[in-house]
Design a protein that fits this description.
The complex is a heterodimer of chains A (414) and B (226). Chain A has 414 residues and is α+β, with helices and mostly antiparallel strands. Chain A has helices at residues 2-16, 18-53, 73-78, 101-108, 143-150, 163-166, 175-180, 212-215, 223-229, 250-257, 268-271, 273-311, 313-321, 326-359, 378-404, 408-413; strands spanning 60-63, 114-129, 132-141, 156-159, 170-174, 188-193, 198-207, 218-222, 239-244, 264-267. The chains are: A alpha+beta (414), B alpha/beta (226). The structure holds adenosine-5'-triphosphate (ATP) and magnesium ion.
Chain lengths: 414, 226
């Protein structure tokens, strides 16, 4: 019963100063909707960025990692306390690439997290058309699986991706590369390897991904043609690309794969630190900005509740004189800020959604985007609401505590 | 039949330290019997209000001992004292303090709602009959800040009575009332003491009011004079 009475008093206080209550509610609303919008937008930007990157980048990359530092191998043998002098060191033949790709693929392909595996033979070559000669990479790929992993087929602008499968002499060229070599569909291009082997291919497709570095340097051929070009056996690959269900778990999966594979297993974020760093920084900005706004809202509520306590100090004294104890008084004032927090939170969630919705229709034609990216993650909405409640609770608790400590005698004596 | 003691004060002393240390109350001891109607008088500044705040348990900064209804209240926690006040003490202030957003009736109901012994309906009826007793039935549903000073004072008295407290204390409870309403309040106090055995302690500057009561305590310079 006394709880009902306290609530009744809280309500009377709230409704007797509608304007201040509205201001307090609005400040919470603003903080929470900004939190939702900022996080939705930043996640959208991050996802877009990552998605674009994954049009050529696999989640996990397996390759033969050559010894890093070959300048002075003897020093390692003799230790730091001996001085080793080695002149004109040369690297002799060592094993390149992966010879037994089928075995490795068989060893990892039943890992439950893996959604796709594709082998590649990547060769540094020159593309030549008449007098124009350009440096680039010839990628020997499995036509179906490559497209399954990277959606390569969707980026074809001219010709056809699938016909690569039928034509050992076909090549799909990056749009930039084709332009620089003045090549169009059905033209011929000469490919020259570092060892001086050259071969003619027919341009059967033009591809335009969003990554300039790829479009300007890359050509795709069937994997067998690439092996032929560098005189390697069936089973030879330079890289094995692996996609998994959730790219954020790449590190975990990579750790599980490492013992099964003799080669280097590298995750996308290891090889592309800038992507991860960009994502992290944007997330930090989003959280920092929105929490700052919530903090300001908290100060607003603190201020308003403090004013209320000062305004109602005589009533507090009389309530205490009548036998309301400290807990009752805290309840009366805390309930007010919690009500402000809950209303502000609910309105903030709705408003945050609306703002996100409107912003997601603002035109933004860059790369594959038509409008600004936006993500609606229920977790953001729940967290925003919880943060809002915590803020109002803390901001309301201090004035409520102050009210509970009012000495009635001091006030009543006048 | 041995008369019951409703309230007893033993060797009460109190000091104020601001702006300088001085003793407001000096070794005050007295008993009040159950159903007794006591007036407390004395010059302005003699310490009447200060003593009343001690007796009401709101001020706990004193030496000595206060017992009400056989319960020693000295040394109890604030929350225990709050609960005790709610159930056993009614207080009427020199300046009427009501919750301005609430109606007269709601104000009177508050202490009973806090006590939670009766249903809301019963409390409403009690509150209404208290208001009626003080001639305020027409004002019951008015918001309390729309009442005249004297009406507010009487609402405060009705509120002090709602839990049928053992002791009703008033600091100049009729200070804002005209002689007609002062008489009404006096008669009500008289009646409560006689018929319900409630004890009344009223600080007053009204000599006539004091003379009509059962007993007069006079304070002078922090001491009991009689
Ligand atoms: N908070 C305080 N700090 C210091 N001195 C105080 C305080 N409250 C009261 N006093 C002093 O204590 C003395 C007694 O005050 P009190 O209010 O009890 O007088 P009173 O008898 O009720 O007077 P009145 O009839 O004018 O109401 C006065 O001298 C007053 O100045
Ligand atoms: Mg006084």
């Amino acid at each position: 019963m006394s709880r009902v009475t306290n609530l009744k008093i809280s309500r009377a206080h709230l409704t007797s100063r509608v304007k201040q209550t509205m201001v307090a509610i609005l400040s919470v609303t603003f903080g929470i909707s900004m939190y939702i919008f900022m996080n939705g937008f930043m996640t959208g930007v991050n996802d877009t960025q990552t998605e674009l990157a994954f049009s050529t980048l696999a989640h996990i990359h397996i390759y033969n990692d050559l010894p890093e530092d070959n300048t002075n191998l003897l020093q390692k043998k003799y230790g730091e306390d001996k001085l080793v002098n080695l002149r004109n060191a040369k690297v002799i033949q060592y094993t390149e690439g992966i010879k037994n790709s089928a075995k490795i693929i068989a060893a990892i392909e039943d890992h439950p997290a893996i959604t796709g595996i594709t082998p590649q033979v990547n060769v540094n070559v020159f593309f030549r058309n008449g007098a124009t000669k350009l440096n680039g990479v010839l990628s020997g790929i499995d036509v179906k699986q490559e497209s399954a992993l990277f959606g390569t087929e969707d980026y074809i602008t001219h010709g056809s991706w699938k016909s690569l499968e039928d034509r050992g002499d076909g090549v799909v060229l990056g749009a930039g590369l084709a332009e620089k070599l003045s090549l169009t569909l059905d033209d011929n291009v000469t490919v020259i390897t570092a060892d001086g082997v050259s071969r003619n291919f027919k341009v059967i497709g033009i591809i335009k991904t969003t990554i300039g570095g790829v479009d300007n340097t890359k050509g795709y051929v069937r994997i067998s043609s690439a092996r032929q070009l560098i005189s390697k056996n069936q089973g030879y690959v330079t890289d094995i690309q692996v996609n998994i269900k959730n790219f954020n778990e790449a590190a975990k999966v990579a750790d599980q794969l490492t013992p099964k594979v003799d080669y280097k297993v590298e995750t996308w974020n290891e090889s592309n630190g800038q992507l991860q760093a960009g994502n992290d920084l944007r997330n930090i900005i989003a959280v920092a900005v929105s929490l700052t706004i919530l903090l300001v809202a908290g100060f607003g509520i603190f201020n308003i509740m403090n004013m209320t306590v000062n305004e109602k100090i005589k009533e507090i004294a009389i309530l205490k004189a009548m036998g309301f104890d400290g807990t009752d008084i805290i309840q009366i004032f805390l309930v007010q800020s919690v009500i402000i927090g809950v209303i502000g939170g609910i309105v903030g969630i709705i408003f945050g959604y609306l703002v996100s919705f409107v912003v997601s229709y603002i035109p933004f034609r860059v790369a594959t985007l038509d409008t600004l990216p936006m993500v609606y993650d229920p977790q953001d909405y729940i967290l925003a609401f919880i943060f809002g409640l915590i803020t109002t609770f803390v901001a309301g608790y201090l004035p409520a505590k102050k009210a509970a400590n009012v000495d009635p005698v001091e006030i009543i004596r006048g | 039949m041995k008369e019951e003691i409703a309230l007893s004060a033993r060797a009460i002393s109190k000091y104020f330290h601001e702006p300088e240390t001085f003793q407001v109350l000096k070794d005050i001891s007295f008993d009040v019997k159950k159903g007794e109607f006591l007036s407390m008088i004395g010059k302005s500044g003699s310490g009447k209000s200060t003593l009343l705040y001690l007796l009401s348990t709101m001020d706990t900064d004193y030496t000595g001992e206060i017992t009400i209804n056989g319960e020693c209240l000295t040394g109890r926690t604030q929350n225990q004292l709050a609960a005790f006040r709610n159930a056993h003490i009614g207080f009427v202030f020199q300046f009427h303090y009501l919750l301005p957003e609430f109606t007269a009736l709601d104000n009177v109901m508050l202490p009973a709602l806090k006590l939670g012994k009766k249903s809301q309906e019963e409390i409403r009826e009690d509150a209404y009959s208290n208001l009626k007793m003080l001639g305020l039935e027409a004002q019951a549903m008015k918001q309390s800040n729309k009442l005249s000073g004297g009406q507010q004072q009487r609402v405060a008295i009705a509120r002090a009575l709602i839990n049928q407290p053992a002791v009703i204390m008033g600091d100049e409870p009729t200070g804002n009332l005209d002689s007609k309403n002062t008489d009404i309040v006096f008669d009500i106090f008289r009646q409560l003491a006689a018929e319900r055995g409630q004890t009344i302690i009223a600080v007053t500057h009204d000599d006539e009011f004091a003379q009509k009561s059962d007993r007069i305590l006079e304070l002078g310079d922090g001491r009991l004079l009689n």
